[in-house]
Amino acid sequence: MATPGLKQGIQKIHKMYGSKLAHEFWKASVDAIDLIDEIVNEHSIDCDWERNGHASLATKPSHAPRLKEYGSWLEKEFGHSQKYIPKNQIRDEIGSNAYYGALTDEISGGLHPTKYVFGLAAAVANLGAQLCENTDVTKIEKNDSNNFKLITSKGDITAKKVIIATNGYTDRLVSKLKPLIFPVGSYIVVTERLTNELQNIISPKRRMYYDSKWFLNYFRLTPDGRMLWGGRNDLSTDLDLDDSAKRLSKELYTVFPDLRDISITHTWTGNLGITFDLMPHIGETNGIYYAFGYGGHGLSIATYLGTEIGLMLAGKKDRSPFMEISHQTMFFYRNRPWFIPFAARYFRFLDWIS
């Protein structure tokens, strides 16, 4: 899914960094979606890219007026139009009675991430890049020529410039980066193919969806007519897949009782990269550049920041708002994110009282 905004809410960003940077961050999140559109079309990437918009869904009655107020604020502050849908009209957007209102945005889109990544790889290979797959970089050193020597599992590589782009899989290869980001697990289940009639009932406009909980759920119909349902009620990266599938399918069937007889056919997990200010960052340490911290918006924001940092290294761009915000970290955090269980309990509490 590619939706406008960042992991940190734009209203909070406005308070944290002021109007000028907030406008730059918001514009970047919108431009990032257009950039995917441009890349997919320019390189003819077959990845099921469609811009059918998204709907943010109120899971409790008290969340609905907040959604409406947020939409009005976006229009006033950024000139960005979203449409509020009251509960009595919500069946026009989604085939469920579980929600109390929605905020829709027409610019969002969805694609098949693996097809997109393979398409990007083919595009850069066609432009002359050499891709070294399944090659672990175990150490980075400076050589006598002030270039970088990358010691890998398949031999050494010399490079003039290095970018670390490991996000939720960042380790201590560059020791200064590990305390700035931590991994959070995200889990997905996918059903068998639905009938055309059921698809049209469940998602009449083929939107991308996410709800208003702290431990949010996100979901959509896939291009081949399956329901993809993702989320978490834990932040761990090592939950048992069968256990997580049971949790997710229980929530799926609660929201869509019509799917109770539909089987789950696939499940998987992956790591999100989260920073302590919930913001993406570009930076440089000892001549090594990095970009990370997409917080679930990696499809669009990683595409955008990859372009930003590439232009900067090529000397075609001299600044980015994502370089102008300072990092935060957590005391005593070096290797193991000890605070994750406490954060999970806190988020469950927030969902309970909200």
Class by helix and strand content? alpha+beta
Report strand order across the widest sheet. 2-3-1-9-10-11-8-12
- In CATH terms, the superfamily of the largest domain is D-Amino Acid Oxidase, subunit A, domain 2
Summarize model confidence as the mean pLDDT. Answer: 94
- Main beta sheet, described? 8 strands, mixed
* Helical coverage, percent range: 25-40%
Number of contiguous helices: 7
How much of the sequence lies in strands comes to 15-25%
How many discrete structural domains? 2
CATH architecture label name of the largest domain: 2-Layer Sandwich
Strand segment tally: 14
- Spatial shape: globular
CATH class of the largest domain: Alpha Beta
What order do the helices and strands follow?
HEHEEHEEEEEHEEEHEEEHH
Could you tell me how far the N terminus lies from the C terminus, measured between alpha carbons in angstroms? 26 Å
The residue ranges in which pLDDT falls below 50 over 5 or more consecutive positions are none
CATH topology-level fold name of the largest domain: D-Amino Acid Oxidase, Chain A, domain 2
From the alpha-carbon coordinates, what is the Rg to the nearest angstrom? 21 Å
Structure description:
It comes from marine metagenome. InterPro entries: FAD-dep_OxRdtase, FAD/NAD-bd_sf. The structure is a single chain. With 354 residues, the chain is an alpha+beta fold. It folds into two domains: 319 residues, D-Amino Acid Oxidase, subunit A, domain 2 (D-Amino Acid Oxidase, Chain A, domain 2, 2-Layer Sandwich); 32 residues. It has an eight-stranded mixed sheet, sandwiched between helices. The chain has a three-stranded antiparallel sheet with strand order 4-5-6, with no helix packed on it. Strands 7-14-13 form a three-stranded mixed sheet, with helices on one face. Helix 1 packs across helix 6.
